[in-house]
Design goal:
It catalyses: Thiol-dependent hydrolysis of ester, thioester, amide, peptide and isopeptide bonds formed by the C-terminal Gly of ubiquitin (a 76-residue protein attached to proteins as an intracellular targeting signal). Helix content is about 25%, strand content about 30%. The chain is of the alpha+beta class and about 475 residues long. The strands form 8 sheets. Strands 14, 18, 22, 23, 24, 25, 26 and 27 form an 8-stranded mixed beta sheet that branches. A 5-stranded antiparallel beta sheet has the order 4-3-5-6-7, with helices on one face. A 4-stranded antiparallel beta sheet has the order 13-12-17-16.
């Protein structure tokens, strides 16, 4: 029921105004993206949001911070962030009004199976409360200071339908039991909340702040990844996928939604090499020993690392550095089972070659652009030329796998780009909207549509490819 109230905000008195009308004014400034802890006691327990100023306070008893705030500043409407119930303080009565449902939905969006099933079947634009239009899933993430390296990874993963669909429905993971004191499950909870916010068709604004998600990342990574310090997107992706897999109860043998979507397998052929400074006769003698014979092992992977050719050191006749280009299939030849590459450790050298035995539904490529040494980080600016659709990886499979793998063709769905210097650069991402078939470029809060031809001109760093598990028209993925 709707009540008439008298509320003073910033010394202006709103008299004889209904609660519904007053809260319609507040919807434009409400923001539930920040960590839900009391602004005074820093407690996570029994926290209420003041709907007048947006601050969080603990409790609603007579000595609580929320009660004191309501008396001191005459802010009377509060929302319990856990129970999603509204209260009027200091009178301490519950407010029941169906028109407030949109506020609780923004705080905790929910998705039905029918809604989830239809996400990739249409490209309907939605209008946020602030008047801006947006496509659910194609939403900017706030760069708090230097967290764009994490933003692009989160945006890329949010556009992988199996992973997205799993986290949109909280019942899929809410009953997973973890050992007492385990903090890693916080990643699962926060990632699920972020997915639901990114895909919420009823947002008050057309962007989302990943503050809570990143706070969980800082805690669970033991400050390896920070909000205030630029990081490496590949390092973050690797850690995040493995941490998410473990938090969902996954092991080397037990699968999770992460391994179901991204995990493939390969054969690694490894041969130990004698030390190069040894005499020739001694090298030949060592090569006859069993220790120096080629050995084969099976290994799983969540992403494939592609090595770029060495960038030129010298400038051309116009005193400009040449930016080389390489076809994607040239650097994929690493996995054809024939190409050998030397890998050095601090005391031993190995010659290795690789061949794929299983392809995942979604294949991640990480293009190795950065080389670290004791003094600095060097970036390779080589441009990788790749098609957007119909990349067939059959030739990189073993003969046995070629006979069993029915589908081996992939289409690009996400492309993470690094611009600028290794330590001072920035990240942006190109994502495919499955419902419209159009490509969009996201950089922090900025979202623009982009021609697919422009994607191949960028310094690609991470790519996610979707396997065609049935005959799919290429035109639906090009955006042309």
């Amino acid at each position: 029921m709707t009540k008439n109230v008298f509320i003073i905000v910033n010394h202006y008195c709103f008299s004889a105004v209904t609660l519904t009308q007053f809260l319609s004014f507040l919807r434009s400034v409400l923001d539930f993206d920040f960590e839900k802890l009391c602004s005074i006691s820093l407690s996570h327990i029994n926290v209420y949001a003041c709907l007048i100023c947006g601050k969080y306070f603990q409790g609603r008893g007579q000595k609580s911070h929320a009660y004191i705030h309501s008396v001191q500043f005459t802010h009377h409407v509060f929302l319990n962030l856990h129970t999603l119930k509204f209260y009027c303080l200091p009178d301490n009565y519950k407010i029941i009004d169906s028109s407030l449902e949109d506020i609780t939905y923004v705080l905790k969006p929910t998705f039905t199976k029918q809604h989830i099933a239809g996400l990739d079947k249409h490209g309907k634009l939605y209008r946020a409360y602030d008047g801006t239009t947006y496509l659910p899933g194609i939403v900017g993430l706030n760069n708090i200071k230097a967290n764009d390296y994490a933003n692009v990874v989160l945006q890329a993963l949010s556009n992988v339908p199996p992973l997205r669909n799993y986290f949109l429905e909280e019942d899929n993971y809410c009953k997973i039991r973890r050992p007492p004191g385990d903090i890693m499950f916080l990643l699962v909870q926060r990632f699920g909340e972020l997915m639901r916010k990114l895909w919420n068709p009823r947002n008050f604004k057309a962007h989302v702040s990943p503050h809570e998600m990143l706070q969980a990342v800082v805690l669970c990574s033991k400050k390896t990844f920070q909000i205030t310090t630029q990081g490496d997107a590949v390092d973050f992706l690797s850690w995040f996928l493995n941490a998410l897999h473990g938090a969902l109860g996954g092991t080397k043998k037990k699968t999770s939604i992460v391994t179901k979507a991204f995990q493939g397998s390969m054969r690694i052929f490894s041969k130990k090499l004698p030390h190069p400074d040894l005499p020739a006769e001694e090298k030949e003698a060592l090569l006859l020993k069993d220790e120096y014979q080629e050995k084969m092992s099976e290994s799983t992977f969540l992403y494939l690392t592609l090595d770029l050719p060495t960038a030129p050191l010298y400038k051309d006749e116009k005193e400009q550095l040449i930016i080389p280009q390489v076809p994607l299939f040239n650097i994929l030849a690493k996995f054809n089972g024939n190409n050998e590459k030397e890998y050095k450790t601090y005391k031993e050298n190995f010659l290795k070659r690789f061949q794929l035995t299983k392809l995942p539904p979604y294949l991640i490529f990480c293009i190795k652009r950065f080389t670290k040494n004791n003094f600095f980080v060097e970036k390779n600016p080589t441009i990788v030329n790749f098609p957007i659709t119909n990349v067939d990886l059959r030739e990189y499979l073993t003969e046995e796998a070629q006979a069993t793998e029915k589908f081996t063709t992939y289409n690009l769905v996400a492309n993470v780009v690094h611009d600028g210097k290794p330590t001072e650069g920035s990240y942006r991402i190109h994502v495919l909207h499955h419902g419209t078939g159009k490509w969009y470029e996201l950089q922090d809060l900025q979202v623009i549509d982009i021609l697919p031809q422009m994607i191949t001109l960028s310094e690609a760093y991470i790519q996610i490819w979707k396997r065609q598990d049935k005959d799919e028209g290429a035109e639906s993925h090009t955006g042309a």
